[in-house]
Each structure stands twice: as structure tokens, then as C-alpha cells.
Amino acid sequence: MRVVIAPDSFKESLDSPAVAAALAQGWREGDPSATVVEVPMADGGEGTVEAVLGATGGTRRALEVPDPLGRPVAATYALLPDGRTAVVEVAAATGLALVEPGLRDAGRASSYGTGVLLARALDDGVSSVVLGLGGSASTDGGAGLCQALGIRLLDDRGETIPPGGDGLAELATVDLSGAHPRLREVDLVAACDVDNPLCGTRGAAAVFGPQKGADPADVGRLDDALRRLADVVQRHARDADPEIAGAGAAGGIGFAVVALLGGRLATGVDLVAQAVGLEDHVRGADLVVTGEGRLDGQSLSGKTPVGVLRVAQRHGVPTIAVAGQLGPDVERLVDAGVTAVFAAAPGPVTLEQAMADAPQDLRRLARQLAATWATASRS
User: Fold this and answer.
1) Angle at CA 30, nearest 5°, toward 29 and 33?
2) In this structure, are strands 2-5 and 287-295 parallel, antiparallel, or unpaired?
3) Would the pLDDT of 316 be above 90?
4) Which of 25, 65, 271, 370 meets the CB 3.0–4.6 Å disulfide criterion with 31?
5) % of the chain residues with pLDDT over 70
6) Could you read off the pLDDT of 122-160 as tens digits, one per residue?
7) To 10 degrees, the CA torsion angle through 140, 210, 97, 122?
8) What global pTM score does this model have?
């Protein structure tokens, strides 16, 4: 019996390597004869770097960068074992979790720190970069990121615009002449799990701004500022389209990646699956176990468990999903092809208790599933 354990993180409880380790330990206890392979996963958001490092054994690169409010913070990115691919996540330098709730300011927060990380990865000489979009505190259309990479964003006096989304209101021109030279040499692809455009009722400000501290007036102002960014950029890059799916990801960084950095957008879980070699691990397996902190009907919209399921289905391998919490319409996952869905908690518990007990609950559940699956396989 060969079992592949490929979960996402349990947010605010366990990262994906820890989830995979707990499930794998329990499975080995329940079926000592099984070969268990741990492949931590992510969808491009927070935890992507740790998932890739946990699955590939790559190298962690650390440096100090500005956080969304310009304060110094330690951030890391991953260099894969081939030495040619870097994985950078927005959440590491521009993450909402880096800003205390009372200080969140969608108009002021900048993505500059993510640009510093990306520049260092380019300086490492890599030939490809996976940029995980998700969990950002900024709504600046990627302006700070671009500035850290040498792109000048100027007002009508030729001066650099202020940081953050509010600064975009003063944008008059874009100067690409000083852009990091290696941007033209690398394959830059952004891992994205949303399809929102840059502006409008489904745009970066309207949909994600409130969780970043924006009130209704802030949302309207930031949406106007992002429209100004799109209008100015389109004068320099005629094919820059603020309506493309994913342009509004990470406060508009998705738009900047395509329109100013020469990159492209792709489904986050698919990119991570490629980076960790999930297809090769699943090929020839007898069972795949995946999951994340919460599973419900919305998990079908580009989340990790369904991405893992699609890989398993291509190879005819059954899939079990586990979660800390099961939400509405979770049976849609079974309709989509998951063999069975299980909650890790043994019964009704508080959220705090479920998070605290997650390692032992996952281990216990995996032990029971392994014993049951082994018995069924032998019958």
C-alpha cells in the first residue's frame, strides 16, 4: 500500500508540513506495512514557501525587508534544489498577518517588501520565479513591488508618488527604463487562487479592501486610484488589461505582474503541485489523503484539496479529504469525486480547542483510517 499525504495548512494552527507529518505518523501507526509519502501543499497564499521547502528540501533564503507599513521584518523565500527556481510569497513581506488589526490601513500599506524579496531572488540568478499571491495587506496595485524592482512611478511633477494605494491617485507616468534587468530573462508566474479583476464591484478594493482596514469611503477612493493606475499603465503597455481574471489578486499585484513585469498568472495549486512534483508522487499510488483547515462547498473554487483531487483523478487514485471543520455543502466534494470527507475533531469542540488539539486529532484520525483502509483492501 502506497499512500500520498498532500494537505494544505490548517490556518492559524498548523502549516502544511506539520499537517502532513501528523497524518503520516498516524497512518504508519494504523498500517505499519504502508509506504507513506509526505507532500505538503499550498495554493499560493501564506504557507507556500514552507510547503515547497517541506516537499522538496530546498534552501531557505532569509533577509530583512520592509513590512506593509515600512517597518523591518524578517522574511524568507525558497530556492528549489535545482538552483534555478525561486518561490516567493507576498504574505512573507506584505502579509495582512504582519499588521496588527488596529493598524491596518489599506490606503497606506505598500507591497515594496515583496519587491525586495523578488529582487534578491533575481540576483540569485534563477531562471524562473513562482510568486505566491494571497494574504496581502496592500491595495496598491503592486506599485511598491514595482518600485523595489527599479520601475519609477511618477506624479505630474516627475516626483515619486507616495507609498500605498492612496499614492496612486497622484500617478501620471511610468518609467520602465530602470527596471531590474533580469526581469527580461526569467519566467515569472504568479500563483493565484482568485479570479477578481483589478477594479469595480469585484475588484481588489471592493472585495478585499474591508479586511485590510478600508471603510466604504476608503474602498471608493482606492478603486478610483486603481483605475488611474490601469489608465496610466495602458499608455505604456497597450495589452495591459485590468479585467483579466486575477488582476485584483493581492491588492492588484496580479495586474502589475502581467502589465509591468512581463509575467503571467496561473492557478496557485497547479503551480505548487508542479513545484513539489505532486504528479510523480501520485503516479502509481494506492490512495491520496488531502485536506485543509475548513472544507465546504467553496473548496471547489481553486482550493488545494480539489487541485490535489484532480491530479489523483488523472491517475485513477482514490482520494480522502480531512479538515478541522466541515462547512455547508461539503457533500459537493464527494459529488466532485472525493471518496470520503472527515473532520479531525472527535466531537463538538470550540475553535480554540480544535486548533490546539489538531496534531493529535489528525494523528488519531489517520490511524483509524489506515487500519480501516488496510482491512478493506485485504478483504
Assistant:
1) 80
2) parallel
3) yes
4) 370
5) 96
6) 999 999 999 999 889 999 999 999 999 999 999 999 999
7) -20
8) 0.85
Q: Rounded to whole angstroms, how far apart are CA atoms 299 and 308? A: 12
CA dihedral sign, ordered 266, 176, 118, 128: positive
Q: Which domains are seen in the chain, by residue range?
A: 2-39+277-378 (3.40.50.10350), 48-269 (3.90.1510.10)
Question: Of 17, 7, 16, 43, which Cα lies nearest the Cα of 190?
Answer: 43
Which of these ranges, 69-78, 158-167, 339-348, has the smallest mean pLDDT? 339-348
At 195, is the pLDDT very low, low, confident or very high (cuts 50, 70, 90)? confident
Higher pLDDT, 45 or 321: 321
- The pairing of strands 35-38 and 319-326 is unpaired
Phi-psi region of 322 (alpha: psi -120 to 50; beta: other; left: phi over 0): beta
